[in-house]
């Protein structure tokens, strides 16, 4: 049931971002370290959301693997003491 609620929540967030993006279609100036470019705001919003999601996913995967290694190490120590 928890996975269903997570899916519903994710769909609501995606819908809100999509509506927000479609409303904002004006051209904006994006300043880079090496120059400027004109981009539609919809692409800036969607790109920012995707980069944020990618970064959050990478950080959570790193944390998952750290916890997995710590759990395995603790399990190995318990097996050695038994």
Automatic annotation (TrEMBL):
This is DUF1049 domain-containing protein. The keyword Amino-acid biosynthesis does not apply. Keywords: Cell membrane, Membrane, Transmembrane, Transmembrane helix. The chain crosses the membrane at residues 7-33, 39-59. The keyword Transmembrane applies. It comes from the Bacteria. Pfam families: LapA_dom (PF06305). Residues 24-79 form the Lipopolysaccharide assembly protein A domain. PANTHER family: MEMBRANE PROTEIN (PTHR41335:SF1), MEMBRANE PROTEIN-RELATED (PTHR41335). InterPro entries: LapA_dom (IPR010445).
